[in-house]
Amino acid sequence: MIGGGQGAFIxxxxxxxxxxxxxxxxxxxxxxxxxxxxxxxxQLLGLRPERVYGSYEELIRREKELPADERVQVLxxxxxxxxxxxxxxxxxxxxxHVILDKPMTFSLAEAKELQAVAEASTARFCxxxxxxxxxxxxxxxxxxxxxxxxxxxKAYVEYPQGWLSTFEEGSANKQAAWRTDPxxxxxxxxxxxxxTHAFNLLEYVTGLSVTQLCADINTVVPGRQLDDxxxxxxxxxxxxxxxxVATQVAAGEENNLRLRVYGEQGGLEWQQADANxxxxxxxxxxxxxxxxxxxxxxxxxxxxxxxPAGHPEGYLEAFANLYRNFALTLQADLAGTTAPPEALDYxxxxxGVRGMAFIENVIASGRSEQKWTEFTI
Amino acid sequence: MIGGGQGAFIxxxxxxxxxxxxxxxxxxxxxxxxxxxxxxxxQLLGLRPERVYGSYEELIRREKELPADERVQVLxxxxxxxxxxxxxxxxxxxxxHVILDKPMTFSLAEAKELQAVAEASTARFCxxxxxxxxxxxxxxxxxxxxxxxxxxxKAYVEYPQGWLSTFEEGSANKQAAWRTDPxxxxxxxxxxxxxTHAFNLLEYVTGLSVTQLCADINTVVPGRQLDDxxxxxxxxxxxxxxxxVATQVAAGEENNLRLRVYGEQGGLEWQQADANxxxxxxxxxxxxxxxxxxxxxxxxxxxxxxxPAGHPEGYLEAFANLYRNFALTLQADLAGTTAPPEALDYxxxxxGVRGMAFIENVIASGRSEQKWTEFTI
Amino acid sequence: MIGGGQGAFIxxxxxxxxxxxxxxxxxxxxxxxxxxxxxxxxQLLGLRPERVYGSYEELIRREKELPADERVQVLxxxxxxxxxxxxxxxxxxxxxHVILDKPMTFSLAEAKELQAVAEASTARFCxxxxxxxxxxxxxxxxxxxxxxxxxxxKAYVEYPQGWLSTFEEGSANKQAAWRTDPxxxxxxxxxxxxxTHAFNLLEYVTGLSVTQLCADINTVVPGRQLDDxxxxxxxxxxxxxxxxVATQVAAGEENNLRLRVYGEQGGLEWQQADANxxxxxxxxxxxxxxxxxxxxxxxxxxxxxxxPAGHPEGYLEAFANLYRNFALTLQADLAGTTAPPEALDYxxxxxGVRGMAFIENVIASGRSEQKWTEFTI
Amino acid sequence: MIGGGQGAFIxxxxxxxxxxxxxxxxxxxxxxxxxxxxxxxxQLLGLRPERVYGSYEELIRREKELPADERVQVLxxxxxxxxxxxxxxxxxxxxxHVILDKPMTFSLAEAKELQAVAEASTARFCxxxxxxxxxxxxxxxxxxxxxxxxxxxKAYVEYPQGWLSTFEEGSANKQAAWRTDPxxxxxxxxxxxxxTHAFNLLEYVTGLSVTQLCADINTVVPGRQLDDxxxxxxxxxxxxxxxxVATQVAAGEENNLRLRVYGEQGGLEWQQADANxxxxxxxxxxxxxxxxxxxxxxxxxxxxxxxPAGHPEGYLEAFANLYRNFALTLQADLAGTTAPPEALDYxxxxxGVRGMAFIENVIASGRSEQKWTEFTI
Lengths: 377, 377, 377, 377
Fold this sequence. Notes:
4 copies of one chain form a homotetramer. By secondary structure, chain A is of the alpha+beta class. Chain A has 2 domains: 10-127, NAD(P)-binding Rossmann-like Domain (Rossmann fold, 3-Layer(aba) Sandwich); 134-309 and 349-367, Dihydrodipicolinate Reductase, domain 2. Chain A is 37% helix and 18% strand. Chain A is built from 13 helices and 12 strands. Chain A has helices at residues 10-19, 35-44, 56-65, 85-93, 108-120, 135-146, 174-179, 182-185, 190-206, 299-303, 315-335, 341-344, 349-367; strands spanning 74-77, 97-100, 125-127, 152-160, 210-218, 229-236, 241-247, 258-263, 266-271, 277-282, 287-291, 373-374. In chain A, the strands form 2 sheets. In chain A, strands 11-10-9-8-4-7-6-5-12 form a 9-stranded mixed β-sheet. The first copy, chain A, has a 3-stranded parallel β-sheet with strand order 1-2-3, sandwiched between helices. In chain A, β6 and β7 form a beta hairpin. In chain A, α1 crosses α11 (315-335), α4 (85-93) runs parallel beside α5 (108-120) and α9 (190-206) crosses α13. The longest helix of chain A is centred in the last third of the chain and has 21 residues, at 315-335. Chain A is globular, with a radius of gyration of 20 Å. Chains in contact: A-B, A-C, A-D, B-C, B-D, C-D. Chains A, B, C, D: This is Gfo/Idh/MocA family oxidoreductase. Chains A, B, C, D: InterPro entries: Gfo/Idh/MocA-like_OxRdtase_N (IPR000683), Gfo/Idh/MocA_oxidoreduct (IPR051317), GFO_IDH_MocA-like_dom (IPR055170), NAD(P)-bd_dom_sf (IPR036291). Chains A, B, C, D: Residues 9-125 form the Gfo/Idh/MocA-like oxidoreductase N-terminal domain. Chains A, B, C, D: GO terms for molecular function: nucleotide binding.
């Protein structure tokens, strides 16, 4: 693991996710750019001291010197955005599989360069767009793909949070500090942090691509350096259209990502606050409540649940599904077989590049007086 | 009553709303431009034949000839949009109070002319923006006005329907026929039919005005003549911003108008599907479920409920609240007193003019390549 | 109308319910045992003074002297329980149709006597078990009757309220005063006031009869004279079983009557707080959300809704459905035709007798050390 | 681990729960009474072959021979009920800490004997009543303990499932087979499997004890040997009363454990289907939606959540909280310190004895014609 030392939020989440299914063992880390913090974090996590490193370069160099069956196989990179590209590139170049937190890089240019590196590497790459790991998000994608809803016409995605309603970066909140700092986050704040999740979810479920967008991007809290709020009109491939809302100043909201998609024959609705449910709506018959863990859902939904219906699985399980599917894919590689489509269904480099393109296009649109901005990569 | 003959939807709703509190008696009508239909409708409703007229002109002329204590006092006009202006103007000019279905007129120009007529008339005017009649919408407005949420930053309003997902106007559906016909509806379809409700609700609750908008307006169903779908970015007075969504092609959706508003300290959420509940959200404390009929709500919410908490009141009661408040205001006029603010709180001519301006501005924006369109009247 | 003077709760509800559809006109009343209160109430309601009476005896005698086409046709009796039997009996004996508030009488003996009177009378009788007036309760009954759920095995009904959590009868609350007073309510408090509603709903929807019961009946609030809380184990005809809960000391609860029924193949759930929805659950497929006002519900559900799906109808509409169905039945009688089954589906004398038997049996069981008490009439 | 071989449900759940926080490592097991199955299961789980045993006796004997810092420290026992007592007793007698699945034993007599063993042992004991591991169940208990609701008057707990609506034990369903078999489950079916959870939850949150009960116990599905359905009237210490419902024939229900508790001043409601929410109801103010992961909840709720509000945690996390708290307690023991009360708050031997007493008392009451059965141990 690179990053994720004491006090980090997402590092701990990655560790829970990796641990849940017993398919990963944490054996080495460079947990902080401060060697003392890295060492202390490694100790707390029960690592052997010789495998706790002071930098990602050192980790990769030294682990590579170990015999193949002793060295780390997968590197989880959980640093702030500006520290994604360097370790991911070096890891891939040295044949280590990479699990990288989103958004993929600091800029679209980096993303495209990383894509080239990944394509040239024998190693595999996974980007942790958590929300596509939920069983009922899988079900939603399969439902659209089945054609049962008819051609898709509308997609609405919203991601309201309230935790940046005040000037949190002026307090001791480390999460707020780096996420609102352009030198660490990149050109976008809310749009990078949560807008990319919303964008990814919409494209994943609909199977469509954003082709044009028109954004209203705001910095609501005085003194803040990056956007904390935005709304975006979308045009999608195939003639559909949509709306994306991402805000971190919706005071009183938690983290309620919500997607609605409508086709000619019906629609679907999923929200993280009720993650084990997918509502399926029809023109002339009752809405269905489809539930995770049941016998009637698709193989993709079944594959990503661990318990029978009525045992709620949540955010950590969705995150763990990414780790698990990546592991199953790597195990198939090792066994010389092909992983089943359900295991191969995890976000990768292409999603990362599109996410970075979203960030740059949406910020550009926000600054433009022109209505529609082409989605360019 | 003018319009609302056999087969009409909203005419029956108006009659239920007028009847519920026993404050109105239906005594005369011109229910259809077809005299036979008018007569048959009047008979079904139990009216005396001599007070069922063949046209609104006849009704107003003949009723005016009756002694003051026998003639109708209030005229409900429930015709399609293109037939609002004529009877409303004539009624006001002849001193009859008017209750008019929304949107107020066929065009903004008509609306402004009607406003001038209304201001010159001694008669009162009510526009049936139903949704502001709900007790918990009243509570929402009072909450914002109290300042408890702090300055408003964001407002999201959405009005998804699915009933025009197919080419209904090609069937025998009379509602679909006139609502999608530009010669009867005006320049807008969905935006006029339900977008104006959403717009009115947002301005009513926030107390803010839309100042600029950027609209994506679509006609999704092939062959349709007017918009059936739209999404609009909003800029609001005081620096707030928002999003308005109105669509009639969200297959499987019923009629779920929903509003969310966020200020510096908290937010609120109301939706028609759970109309007796207002969610009030706070930065650092639990969300409150405020309920209609309780003892703790504002005088405006209390005034607009008929039963104790736990006895759900719905759409007809909200509609009836407009009728009731209008009647209480007229009774106060007759008694030479001033109606209390709770009774005076019904939508009027100003809301009607803004609604028509919304229609024309939003359609203009939808056709424009320019991002922001000024909201002009 | 008999009873329902100023300050009464249920009288106003009856008037709204009667008014909503324009099928009744309030023309006469004996609103209070105090002639002054009766007169003042009649004046407020706009009645002609000569048709406001000082007692129900006077009302019935004098109205009967009027020509048949001038006298009242239907008498609504909305007095406290101890004043149900007298006016209902006299009205039926004199050929006036009766709408009576529940529970039907003060005692089971009275109920059986009233049943004999009703059966000997040419007049019709309706008992206002409101909750069976909801469209989705109708749908529930039809679903069970269709056999789609298979043989019914379990039924759970609960009616929690919190308004008697404190010693309200010690305050100026008139509702609390008579409902907790054995000389006006009868042998039961909560079990009579709301337990009978729950009992009626369960028998109505399941089509089964309670055959044995085992009750835990409590008076929770110190000083109270009647039960304010109870739970009852039920055995039902056909081998099913169930639980009935009715309490008025569930602090913080409003009025959330809720029913769940399970058969061999699936189950159903309805609750008043979401009255326009019926959840239908199946062994191996998604739960359905059936909604009032849609095209796919049964003719009974359709008949009892006034608006399309998505326009919530509530308690007053459910109440009005009883009035409307009774009126349609009487109109059919007058026309010499037979009302359709949808109109004839309103609660009558048999339901009233069973409700009174429930009260007496459940209180007896509460006092017994024997486990099961036979349900006897 | 003892039990939990291939095909077992709860064994996998225990492994996820143990893994999630990285506080346990699975190093040894006797996964089946069939040595081949045990070996195969161990291999799949990546254990060293020499630590996969053919029986629990062998495991305990051989592990004890290992040096103290190499042997297993904690034994998870996840066998069917009739195989709980033997390994638990032997483990405790040999100083191994025990995590045991519920219900604790096959009979109350065994439970009391195990209690004596546990009290004489230096080892610690945890019983996996999962549901008390949820953060908002902790919050509920703390809320009651704080006195904010006043003295508790009513408690309703229900646990409806539908998976045994048909004769599943006649199919290949191993879960159904042993859970309906008196030789493996004990005297109770549904009451032992889920009734004990409901009972434990009620006593845990209210802090009250069941003192008397009156049960209706049914075997609904023909051919079944044990109860699959029951409803129980409860009398609680301190004068409160309640109802417990547990059924496995509520066709279409998943696993929706739900608790409601009411005191003099307010009430609370929690259900597993919305596990991160606790509704807190008050006499005269709005219901509060308290949420896991927020800053305002009690230290007990905070301690048992891993992520901020809005990241749903579910069943596996609740289960993992038991494992984590047990581990934290053992770590404190090793460190010679006292674990904080939040860590010590896991179910133990006393809860196990009461659970077994519940089973025997409730089945006895079900067979009795006497109304109230004393709760005896």
